[in-house]
Design brief:
By secondary structure, the chain is mainly alpha-helical. 68% of the residues lie in helices and 0% in strands. The chain has 68 helices and 2 strands. The chain has a two-stranded antiparallel ribbon with strand order 1-2. It is globular, with a radius of gyration of 42 Å.
């Protein structure tokens, strides 16, 4: 392209009237681009000339259509960006700013940028490359040009930027997880410039505000909506846009009318217009907007409300609250414009701001009326709370009421009578209801107004309120029974509140109110029942004088029955929880008489009427009444001290016993009748034999053998199966000890048959809140009480033995031989169910002979299940059933120990030959688990055969080795190949080659050669394959070679290439975790086979490889790595072992340059190496432990870092527990220093509490006290100091502390305790266990000869002089005004404190009270000593 040849032609071409300047020639932009790139063309101030032309062209032609608009042409922007970049970073004599600023003053760029932003915002597509180029230009030009822009222009540019963000989603287009929003820097400059100009606008602030509301409010709200929804990933650009909008609407000048509570209506009107177009755009960011307004008002409160000398203290705060609530009143009108979920969500969020910012002033009548109106709307909404289609709306209404309660309880106190009835039928999925009810109970407890709350609960179940629930009386009963007022959570809270906060003067009043309520409910039921009977001609009729003004009650008696039953369910909780212990004797007697009268009138009488009148119990409403009466009777009689007479009348009991099996009786009533009958048996009012027979018959008839889920609520009992599940739960949870005493032999056998017929493996998936027959049975088997009941246990075990007895008809050899095989049983799963139960039986409760018997039968059951699964005739048999039996075999063999005479050779060969195969009926996990258990079984038996071979019995083992040799040349099963490798592990573990007969050693040499021939060809290839089976076989070949002491050809060295290949692995990370232990085993084998001169280098490479593998492996894979390394360490020489420890110690020092993760891995490696140290290395281990303790104590990074600290604590715990004899006196100085540093005060704290440090320190001290008392005796002051620190760690910050107060407390806590997560009762329990250990007599664990003649002693007498200091720490923690020690923590710590009190004695206690405690401390110490005296044994029992 031939362009201008001189400067004059170039300038003329750019200023030509047409483009291109010459027909058929290049365009002006091409001429400018060529001129810029042509370094030989000299043009004075070339950059300035080209940029001036570019900006002028962009400014003049910005209004053209897209095809001819230079603003949309990337060539203009690309050339402009190149020139600006060259001039900015180039070495020129003339500065860029010197000529560019005047140019920008002549040619404004704001219209150009505005046009560009509007154009790309209106397009459907977005050119990212073009935007990046334009952004570069704006980044350079904007800071130089912005001083000349007026606020209106900046507002237009800001609005265009907001439109662009909404139109194309800057965060999604430009941002990603690994790259910040660099391309949005241009938009950030525009937004920040606009924000800066707002502070200098002065009189134009109002004008900008109006323009913003008219043009840009909707777009700004959309950006605010997006940033509000994704607060965790909010971009800086969106945050700046939001802040700019807030500053525009809530500037100081605009807020001045707020001082008079006169808000500009323009904002609310603009929000209303936007709300009509898109309510979601307004409602989502509205709470955040309100919070921003409140924060702005608080920030400028002095300027807004502080003028004048007449201000009184607190008046500014009141004015801030009034202004905020006035603005809330404007916003609340928007939330009332609709009723869908978005409006309710916004309403809740706005009230949440009011509550968090403390905006309500009780003296503000307008605010009170406004919030009451919100509450009334919520209460009105709850009128349809039973409708599950509006669950979210109901939940939001309850949240509104809860927030109003937190703001000021008196706001809705007058609505309680209306509110409680509307909470009756709220669905259980509305979780906020229980929180709200808890708030109400807490407030009434504090104000001692619980009687009113109790009456509100009972009135909520009145008939008029129940009739508002759509449907029949049964539907109303089910809805109310599933509601929050009858939930266990609320009833527990009610019981706790009544027992703790009901005053003695309110007890009789409460009993009277409950008595009247129950009597009225019962009387109304009887009255309506009598009227109904009279109308039907079944009862006496009485002529009544008709009165037109009176209205006759036409309510169905079912509603009255439901009301009576529900009131009974709640009021019995109140009566059982009455604090009678707080009453005087005469008042207590009066209260007991009142309760007896209630029991007689509304429990005994309805039971007589219901059971003794003809056909009463057959009607559903009478069954409701009877159920409520039984519930009240049982609740009162089971509470000690309430009723003196707990027996029911014999005719009533006989009627109950006769009615439990009636088909017309509801399932809920059946359960209540059985509970009552069992209780009457316990008080000797009834003979238990007939009751137990009836109960067992019911279970036999209705209890399913597979799982039936029950929700756990009585009203949900719909079928006999569910009722049977509930009865089994009641029996297992409450009445098993009585059943063990009452039952006859036949009854126990029936119960055992019922239990053993349950198939645990068929359990269905269930939620945590449901009960199934399998979950009940499993919990029963895990309960120690069940196994301590001798009669039930004997019957249960006998039944299991009887069900497994048919397996005695089979013999393992005949089953495994085809000729002797018999026909399979029809249902082998019944045997599986027996072993499924046996898996959950504690082995200590079965005699050894029975263990052996079940074990032999298990071999037969295993073969039968495998055969049935293989034949496919019983399709329900899967790998999971095989896993059950083999897991039982594994556990039993491990428990019995020796199995030489139990496991037959044929069964072992069967296990090796048949691996579990995958099928469609079982999951891959079940097959993998069955295969793993099978290998453990094989390993156990092979270990037994290896030990027998050392004693000369090699027959079975020789046959097994020959079998492995013959299978090596074929494609045998996976189990066979893996079993041969396990045999090698057993041989290496049990002893040297010289301990075995030469005949067996010869066979093993043949096996070695076959394995070597098979694996050498694979590892000798030029390209190694990371095959787990091949590498595992090769590592075992190396191990067997060393064990056999084979000499000859050199083995190929493949460890390092394998490690390099694994570290560069790009496949699945789980495969790396599987391969890493195998590769490490290969490297360990090569290291042990290396020459002595090369051993050090191999050890270094092995340690480095271990560190590299730890970066790639998970926690479970790390265990496999440590296991491989530990087994290899046991066979190292003393010199090699010392070299490994030296390498580890060199890596621990700060000069090694390793990362914290690598150092943590080295600490874990050192613990593994020391645990598996070879013989003769005690001095080496002791020296390494001493050096490590000194290093840990001297370097702060081992305490400050989370990972290093965890590994150091674990190292100390293992060292003190596993090798206590290796500790020396010289180690204690470092150990105490390290413990002090772990518990030292810190000004920095981690985000979450690391309780493992506390438990680790406690375990270290416990090991020292128990095992090395001789060392602790010389450093008792250090022990006392550390115990003081541990007690101090149990403190918690008091709520609502100020910043300085919180900092004072936090500076006295260790860095690993987070302020929001104090230590729990578990840590207190561990510390109490440590303190009680001080009083336990133990033996010192040392290597000296004197250890055999020592006597067990404790630290009671030596530590008695130091116990006062530990108790003082507890007293100081309890009395700290800025802290508190929770009741749960104090309760768990009591045993340890009592142990200290026992050491202290009365003399030292008196001295401590005088010298070390203030008045509050003396009170605390007296209370503690009083509790100690209560539990102290005085020798009179």
């Amino acid at each position: 392209m031939l362009g201008p040849q001189n400067a004059q032609d170039f300038i003329r071409a750019l200023k030509a009237s047409s483009d291109p300047p010459h027909a058929g020639g290049p365009s002006k932009i091409d001429i400018a681009k060529e001129a810029w790139e042509n370094t030989h063309l000299y043009v004075p101030n070339k950059a300035e000339a080209i940029i001036e032309w570019l900006l002028t062209r962009l400014l003049k032609d910005r209004t053209r259509d897209r095809q001819s608009n230079p603003v949309c042409d990337v060539r203009y922007w690309d050339l402009l960006a190149k020139i600006l970049a060259s001039e900015k970073h180039g070495d020129h004599g003339r500065a860029l700013r010197a000529w560019l600023v005047p140019l920008l003053n002549r040619v404004p760029i704001a219209p150009v940028i505005l046009s560009y932003l509007e154009l790309i915002a209106s397009e459907g597509t977005f050119d990212v490359a073009q935007y990046a180029t334009v952004s570069q230009c704006i980044t350079v030009l904007w800071p130089l040009a912005v001083p000349k822009f007026n606020p209106e222009t900046l507002l237009e540019c800001f609005g265009a930027a907001v439109h662009l963000v909404i139109a194309h989603g800057v965060q999604q287009q430009f941002g990603c997880a690994s790259q910040p929003l660099n391309e949005s820097r241009a938009l950030s400059l525009i937004v920040l410039s606009y924000r800066a100009s707002l502070s200098n606008t002065g009189s134009k602030r109002k004008q900008l505000y109006m323009v913003f509301l008219q043009k840009y409010l909707k777009s700004w709200l959309e950006v605010a909506t997006r940033s509000s929804e994704g607060q965790n990933v909010r971009s800086p650009l969106e945050a700046d846009i939001y802040d700019a909008g807030v500053e525009t609407m809530f500037g100081l000048e605009l807020l001045k009318p707020a001082a008079d509570q006169k808000h500009d209506s323009a904002l609310v009107e603009a929000l209303e217009r936007t709300l009509q177009a898109s309510h979601e755009t307004v409602l989502r960011p509205l709470p955040r907007l309100f919070a921003s307004y409140v924060q702005t008002v608080k920030r400028h409160k002095s300027a807004l409300f502080g003028q004048g000398s007449s201000q009184v203290p607190g008046q500014i705060a009141d004015q801030v609250q009034a202004a905020a609530m006035a603005f809330y009143a404007n916003l609340s009108t928007l939330t009332r414009a609709g009723g869908d979920d978005d409006f309710w969500r916004c309403r809740v969020a706005l009230l949440d701001v009011v509550e968090k910012e403390n905006l309500f002033n009780p003296k503000d009548d307008g605010a009170r009326a406004l919030l009451r109106q919100e509450g009334d709307i919520a209460v009105e909404t709850l009128n349809a709370a039973h409708d599950e289609t509006h669950v979210f709306r109901t939940d939001s209404a309850v949240q509104v009421l809860a927030l109003l309660t937190r703001i000021d309880y008196d706001l809705m106190a007058t609505s309680a009578a209306v509110l409680f009835p509307r909470l009756v039928a709220i669905p259980s999925v509305v979780s906020s209801t229980l929180q709200y009810l808890k708030l109400l109970l807490e407030y009434d407890s504090k104000t001692r107004n619980l009687p009113a709350s109790i009456m509100h609960v009972s009135d909520a179940f009145s008939v008029p309120h129940l009739q508002r629930i759509p449907g029949s009386p049964k539907a109303a009963y089910e809805a109310a029974s599933a509601g929050p007022l009858t939930s266990l959570a609320f009833l527990d809270e009610l019981s706790r509140a009544v027992h703790s906060f009901l005053t003695p003067g309110q007890v009789l009043e409460t009993i009277g109110d409950i008595s009247r309520t129950l009597k009225d409910a019962h009387a109304h039921f009887l009255d309506r029942e009598a009227k109904l009977s009279a109308d039907h001609g079944d009862g006496p009729r009485k002529k009544r004088k008709k009165d037109a003004s009176s209205s006759e009650d036409r309510t169905e008696p079912e509603y009255h029955a439901v009301s009576f039953a529900l009131i009974m369910r709640t009021m019995v909780v109140v009566l059982r929880s009455l604090p009678l212990h707080t009453l005087t004797d005469d008042v207590r007697l009066e209260a007991e008489r009142a309760i007896m009268e209630v029991h007689s009138s509304v429990a005994c009488r309805p039971l007589r009427d219901g059971f003794l009148q003809a056909n009463s119990k057959d009607s559903w409403h009478w069954q409701m009444v009877i159920t409520g009466s039984l519930r009240l009777h049982l609740g009162l009689t089971c509470t000690p001290g309430l009723l003196q007479q707990s027996h029911l009348e014999q005719p009533v009991l006989s009627a109950i016993l006769a009615s439990v099996s009636a088909p017309s009786v509801s399932q809920e009533l059946v359960v209540e009748m059985f509970r009552t009958l069992l209780h009457q048996c316990s008080v000797d009012a009834l003979e238990p034999k007939d009751v137990l027979d009836t109960l067992l018959s019911y279970l036999e008839d209705y209890l399913p053998t597979v799982s039936t889920a029950w929700a756990g609520k009585a009203h949900a009992l719909g079928t006999g199966a569910e009722a049977a599940v509930a009865l089994l739960h009641v029996l297992a949870d409450r009445w098993l000890p009585y059943f063990d005493v009452w039952s006859t032999k036949e009854q126990r056998e029936r119960f055992a048959r019922i239990l053993t017929n349950i198939r645990l493996s068929d359990s269905m998936s269930r939620s945590a809140s449901t009960l199934t027959i399998s979950s009940i049975f499993t919990r029963m088997l895990h309960d120690a009480q069940f196994w301590e009941l001798l009669n039930i246990r004997d019957a249960f075990v006998a039944q299991l033995n009887q069900q497994a007895a048919p397996l005695d008809d089979f013999e393992v050899p005949k089953l495994l031989s085809r000729k002797g095989a018999r026909r399979l049983p029809d249902d082998v799963l019944r045997f599986v169910s027996v072993y499924d139960v046996l898996l959950r039986v504690p082995p200590e409760y079965l005699p050894r002979a029975m263990h052996v018997e079940f074990l032999k039968r298990g071999f037969v059951a295993d073969i039968l299940v495998h055969t049935a699964r293989k034949d496919g005739k019983q399709s329900t048999v899967s790998a999971h059933h095989l896993l059950i039996i083999r897991e039982f075999l594994r556990r039993t063999i491990a428990y019995l120990g020796s199995v030489e005479n139990v496991v037959s050779k044929e069964f072992l060969e069967y296990l090796i030959a048949h691996a579990p195969a995958a099928d469609l009926t079982s999951s891959p996990t079940a097959d993998e688990d069955a295969s793993a258990v099978t290998m453990e079984l094989v390993d156990m038996y092979q270990g037994t055969l290896v030990r027998s071979a050392k004693r000369g019995s090699i027959g079975v083992l020789a046959d097994l080795v020959n079998r492995y040799i013959s299978l090596e040349g074929t494609e045998g099963s996976v189990i066979s190949r893996r079993a041969s490798l396990l045999l090698i592990d057993s041989l290496v573990k049990e002893g040297a080659v010289a301990d075995f007969p030469e005949e067996l050693v010869g066979m093993l040499r043949a096996l070695y050669k076959r394995l070597l021939a098979r694996s050498a060809s694979s590892v000798a290839q030029s390209e190694l394959s990371l095959d787990v089976d091949v590498l595992d076989t090769w590592s075992h070949v190396q191990s067997l070679r060393r064990w056999l002491k084979e000499e000859g050809q050199d083995m190929p060295t493949i460890g390092r290439p394998l490690a390099q290949q694994l570290l560069s692995w790009r496949g699945n990370k789980q495969e790396v975790g599987t391969l890493a232990p195998v590769v490490l085993a290969v490297m360990l084998g090569e290291m042990q086979a290396a020459a002595p001169t090369q051993r050090r280098e191999e050890l270094e490479y092995m340690v480095v490889a271990y560190l590299a593998f730890t970066r790639l492996c998970g926690r479970q894979d790390m265990k496999h790595l440590d296991t491989k390394l530990g087994s290899a360490c046991r066979s190292l020489s003393v010199d090699d072992f010392a070299a490994v420890l030296d390498l580890i110690f060199d890596g621990l020092s700060s000069q090694s340059g390793l990362s914290a993760n690598d150092v943590a891995s080295l600490i874990r490696l050192s613990a593994v190496v020391l645990h598996d140290a070879p013989e003769g290395t005690s001095r080496v281990c002791q020296a390494f432990a001493t050096k490590s303790l000194n290093l840990f104590a001297d370097d702060e990074r081992f305490v400050a870092g989370l990972q290093l600290r965890s590994e150091v604590v674990e190292f100390l715990v293992r060292q003190c527990n596993d090798r206590p004899a290796s500790l020396r006196t010289a180690d204690l100085s470092s150990l105490w220093s390290l413990l002090r540093a772990l518990l030292a005060d810190s000004s920095e704290h981690e985000p979450s509490t690391d309780a493992t440090v506390f438990h680790g320190v406690v375990n270290i001290l416990s090991a020292l006290v128990r095992l090395r008392r001789d060392l602790v005796l010389n450093t008792l002051p250090h022990l006392g100091f550390v115990l003081r620190q541990l007690v101090s760690c149990l403190r918690s910050l008091r709520p609502q502390l100020g910043g300085k107060q919180s900092r004072i407390v936090l500076d006295t806590l260790p860095r690993w305790i987070a302020p929001s997560q104090p230590l729990s009762a578990q840590e207190s329990k561990a510390l109490a266990r440590l303190l009680t250990t001080l009083t336990t007599k133990t033996m010192i664990r040392t290597h000296s000869a004197a250890a055999e003649t020592q006597k067990p002693e404790s630290l009671v007498r030596p530590f008695s002089k130091h116990a006062a200091y530990v108790l003082t720490a507890y007293v100081e923690a309890v009395n700290d005004p800025l802290c508190f020690v929770s009741s749960a923590v104090r309760k768990e710590l009591q045993p340890g404190l009592f142990a200290l009190c026992d050491m202290l004695g009365e003399h030292n206690r008196d001295a401590m009270m005088v010298s070390a405690l203030d008045a509050g401390g003396k009170v605390t110490m007296k209370a503690l000593w009083k509790e100690y005296e209560k539990q102290k044994y005085v020798g009179k029992g």
